[in-house]
Amino acid sequence: MARENAFPLIVIPLLFGVIVSLFPSVASITGVCYGMIGDNLPSKSDVVHQYQSYGILAMRIYKPDGDTFNALKGTDIDVMVGVPNEELALYANDASAAASWVQNNILAYDGVSFKYIAVGNEVSGDDANNILPAMSKIWDAICSAGRQDRIMVSTAVRFDVLNNTYPPSNSVFSAPFMGPIVQFLNNMGNPLLANIYPYFAYVGNQGDIPLDYALFTATGTVVSDGQFQYQNLFSAMVDSVYSALEKAGGNNVPVVVSETGWPSYGGVGATVQNAQTYNQNLIRFLNYGTPRVPAYMEGYIFAMFNENQKPGDEVERNFGLFNPNQSPVYPIYFN
C-alpha cells in the first residue's frame, strides 16, 4: 500500500521555480517516459535539464534520438531506449543489421547511461514472432561489445498478454510467444518490461473496481488472494505478471514497470486531482514493492508532457506531468 503520510514532506524552492521534495534515501527508481508526439515540445536540452531539476532518475524514449542522446551525455540519467516495432523483422533476420543498430545508437554515444533496450513496445499479431530473434541478435551485439553487465535487453508488453488475472495468483500468459521470451530473459537475468495501467482497468470495469483501489487510497484490503492482501490495483496487476512469470519458468525474471500513469483530462476519471493522486502515490509505493515481491521497484511514469499530436482518444493527449511550456500540470515530487 502507498503510505500517503509515511514521510514528512519538506519542500525547498530552488532557482527557476523548481520545487524538490526531500525524503529519506531509498533504493527505488522512478523514471518518466519522454514521448515526442507533439509540435510544441521543448528542446531536447531543455527537457534533459528539466529531468535533472526535478530529480528524475531515468528516462524512457521509444526510439533512438541523437539530439536527446547528446543532451544526456555526462548526466546521471539512466536511459531506456526502444527499438521501433516496424524494425523488428529486420533485426530478427539479420545479425549484422542488429549489430549496426547497437553500434549507431548505443556505442556511438559514449557518456550516455544506457540501461535498457526495449525491443518492441506492445507488439501483437504476427509481428510478435519477431521479438525473440530480434532480442537475441541485439543481445549478442551488446555482449560482443562487452556491455552485457551494464545494458539489459528486453521487450515491453501490454497487460493483455495475461489471462485469468483475478485473483493475481491465477494469472498465466495467454500469448503463446511469451513462453520462449520468458525463458530467454530468465537465462540472461534480464527483466520483463510491463506496461501497467490501473486507469484503463478502472475505466473498463467501474462496477467492480473502486476508484480508491485504483488510486492507492483504499484504507483496507480490497482483494484477498491466499496469503496476499491487496489494497491497490497496481500491486495486484504487477503480481499478476509475477505469477505468470513463475508458471512460465521465469523465477529469475524481475518486472520493471515500463509505463504507468493517469490522465488529467479527456475521459472517465481523468481529472487533475486523480492524476496527481495516482502518480504521487505511485512514486511512494515503489519503495515498498508488492505483496508477492515486497522489495523496491523500478517504474516509469507516462508521460513527461502532454502530447498534442498523439492519435486516439482525448485522454491519450493528456497523460503528461508537464505542459509543453514546461509548467507542471499539477505539483509532483520525485525521490
From TrEMBL:
<keyword id="KW-0326">Glycosidase</keyword>
<dbReference type="GO" id="GO:0005975">
    <property type="term" value="P:carbohydrate metabolic process"/>
</dbReference>
<feature type="transmembrane region" description="Helical">
    <location>
        <begin position="6"/>
        <end position="34"/>
    </location>
</feature>
<keyword id="KW-1133">Transmembrane helix</keyword>
<keyword id="KW-0378">Hydrolase</keyword>
<dbReference type="InterPro" id="IPR044965">
    <property type="entry name" value="Glyco_hydro_17_plant"/>
</dbReference>
<keyword id="KW-0472">Membrane</keyword>
<dbReference type="InterPro" id="IPR000490">
    <property type="entry name" value="Glyco_hydro_17"/>
</dbReference>
<comment type="similarity">
    <text>Belongs to the glycosyl hydrolase 17 family.</text>
</comment>
<dbReference type="InterPro" id="IPR017853">
    <property type="entry name" value="GH"/>
</dbReference>
<protein>
    <submittedName>
        <fullName>Uncharacterized protein</fullName>
    </submittedName>
</protein>
<dbReference type="Pfam" id="PF00332">
    <property type="entry name" value="Glyco_hydro_17"/>
</dbReference>
<keyword id="KW-0812">Transmembrane</keyword>
<dbReference type="GO" id="GO:0042973">
    <property type="term" value="F:glucan endo-1,3-beta-D-glucosidase activity"/>
</dbReference>
